[in-house]
Design goal:
The chain is about 30% helix and about 20% strand. The chain is of the alpha/beta class. The strands form 4 sheets. The chain has a 6-stranded mixed beta sheet, sandwiched between helices. The protein is elongated. Its EC number is 2.4.2.1, 2.4.2.28, 3.5.4.4. One of its GO terms (biological process) is inflammatory response. Interacts with FASN. Interacts with SDHA. Interacts with ATF6, EIF2AK3 and ERN1. Keywords: Acetylation, Cytoplasm, Endoplasmic reticulum, Hydrolase, Immunity, Inflammatory response, Innate immunity, Metal-binding, Nucleus, Peroxisome, Phosphoprotein, Transferase, Zinc.
Length: about 425
């Protein structure tokens, strides 16, 4: 069942106002009749022109809306660009958790609108289209359900749309304060650029994604363009080039990508000795782990959830640095970023047994159905067994709290995202590292 209706009047000329008014009235009347039980939200999208034109357009729209008191959830959205108007409507949809949208629009706008929607929405949303056909200035406007075969837009039009969206997103103020980056004193900042992000300083507005979400998927409501803008702001603040940014392709396993060699389809670790290349690992309870060798000048990043921890992804990343760049394991520095702590994280008893085998201290309340698990301690133990020096590992065991960056993500909703805490539409922070030029 349609949850919202978007009527696109954005690009219709002003000399058709009388016809538009009549059409809008008829369209709303049809929506009202068909929605006696479930009244959808209705959004009318129009262009915000300057001066008297703007005032006149709003007046004629408001005139057409009079008398539709039963459609209580009706809003006119005026903006200077399609990107701005559509993004504003997306915010309204997300506030109400709506996902099934009918778009009523002129036939000539359909292919353009689909491009905007592809950029600003994800697969969470379902769209259906109904044509709004402008026949001529002198004839009436009419709607039809006829579906027209889509045409591929010229590349210059695609580029203009992408530029318009990018410019609009860049103009938005940050949500929830300034961008904050946590840094480790263990990694020498004269050789490496590194950090762990928090949730502030981006433009993501959905509560569980707000505000510097750095991952997009088909199951979440933040589109790639928003994540890209958040990354651009992070890159500006941190000082790296987003064009040479590489994030692991999470598989919750232990494969490692060596930059410059054949890239695996999926991998949770990545290493390089190339200057200016930024490596990153996500985390939203899983551990983003950073690796640095100041002697051989190599670095790495890994994503270590409970499965990856058991499979030894962190030590696999260390071994990749040793084999690819001749690193000495005793020179490698390892920093564990913000992740869910043993105070909050539970696993079924069968999975907990695997952590108990690593060290009984990795499990709390072992005899319960869902014991508490310490994936950080397990990671440290496996690294130390692999030859990494204890003093070269920074995690939550550090006594100086001013130096601690391995916070529990679930315990700090103001600072970090947490899948465990926030559910399926969760945000993601990252750990990142690069070798300075």
């Amino acid at each position: 069942m349609v949850e919202a209706v978007l009527i696109d009047l954005f690009s219709l000329p002003a000399n058709l106002q009388n016809n538009i008014q009549g059409l809008l009235h008829n369209t709303l009347e049809a929506i009202e009749k068909c929605s006696a039980i479930h009244a959808p939200c209705v959004y009318v999208m129009c262009c915000q022109r300057q001066g008297s034109e703007r005032k006149g357009e709003q007046e004629f729209l408001l005139g057409a809306l009079r008398g539709f008191q039963s459609l209580k959830r009706l809003e006119v959205v005026c903006a200077q660009t399609t990107a701005a108007a559509l993004y504003t409507i997306k915010q309204r949809l997300d506030e109400k958790d709506l996902s099934i949208i009918k778009v009523i629009l002129p036939t000539i706008r359909k292919d353009l609108m689909k491009v905007y929607i592809d950029h600003l929405f994800t697969a969470v949303y379902r769209f259906e289209f109904e044509d709004l056909q402008v026949i001529s200035d002198s004839e009436s406007l009419q709607t039809s359900e006829h579906q027209h075969e889509g045409q591929i837009l010229p590349s210059q039009d695609m580029a203009l749309i992408q530029s318009e969206i990018q410019m609009y997103l860049e103009s938005l103020p940050s949500v929830k304060g300034e961008l904050t980056i946590l840094r480790s004193s263990l990694i020498p900042d004269d050789i490496f650029l590194h950090g762990f992000t928090t949730r502030t300083g981006g433009i993501s507005y959905i509560p569980t994604l707000s505000s510097c979400n750095l991952f997009s998927s088909s199951k979440r409501r933040d589109p790639q363009v928003v994540v890209k803008e958040n990354l651009r702001r992070l890159a500006n603040a941190a000082g790296f080039n987003p064009a040479t940014f590489h994030r692991v392709k999470v598989d919750h396993a232990n494969a490692v990508c060596i930059m410059g060699k054949t890239e695996p389809d999926e991998y949770d670790g990545i290493v390089t000795d190339q200057k200016g290349v930024t490596l990153a690992a996500p985390g939203a309870d899983c551990i983003p782990v950073l690796f640095a060798d100041p002697v051989r000048r190599a670095c790495g990043a890994a994503h270590s959830g409970w499965k990856g921890t058991l499979l030894g992804v962190s030590m696999a990343t260390v071994n990749a640095m040793v084999s690819a760049y001749g690193c000495n394991v005793k020179d490698i520095l390892v920093v564990l970023g913000p992740s869910v702590g043993p105070c909050c994280y539970k696993l079924p008893h069968e999975s907990a047994k695997e952590f108990y085998r690593i060290d009984p201290k990795c499990v709390r309340l072992f005899d319960s159905a869902n014991p508490y698990i310490d994936i950080r301690r397990a990671t440290r133990i496996l690294l130390e067994r692999g030859g990494v020096l204890p003093e070269n590992i920074q995690d939550d065991s550090i006594t100086d709290q001013n130096q601690n960056i391995t916070f529990c993500t679930a315990c700090h909703p103001d600072k970090f995202y947490s899948h465990f805490r926030d559910g399926t539409n969760f945000g993601t922070q990252i750990g990142f590292i690069s070798i300075k030029d």
